[in-house]
Amino acid sequence: WLPCPMCGLTRSLVCAAHGRFGLSLTFHPLGPTVYLALVLTSVFPLLQRDERVRRIADNQALKLGILGFGIALLLLTWSARLL
């Protein structure tokens, strides 16, 4: 049996959305972090009226760096769970 990298993430996100962060961590270690990222992603467009925030949002290198870091973190977590 080989779990997928995101196995348990949906249940973890549901627990985090209900404020049960300890239980969220038991389903997937990245659940609370992904939940926070989703919340920030939904609030971010509201903040883009500010010029400084708009400049950050337009930075393609930053976006790619965050995406790469997220993928690396997911693969690292998956590797740790496989051991």
The profile of the biggest β sheet is: none
Radius of gyration: 15 Å
Number of strands: 0
Oligomer designation: single chain
Measured distance between first and last alpha carbons: 13 Å
Give the tags.
mainly alpha; 83 residues; 5 helices; 76% helix; single chain
Explain how this protein is built.
The chain has helices at 9-17, 21-27, 31-47, 51-57, 60-82. Helix 1 runs antiparallel to helix 2 and helix 1 crosses helix 3. The protein is built from 5 helices and no strands. The model has no long low-confidence stretch (mean pLDDT 89). With 83 residues, it is mostly helical.
Fold blueprint:
Layout (H helix, E strand, L loop, with lengths): L8 H9 L3 H7 L3 H17 L3 H7 L2 H23 L1
Helix pairs in contact: 1-2, 1-3
Summarize the structure.
The protein is an all-alpha fold and 83 residues long. Helix content is 76%, strand content 0%.
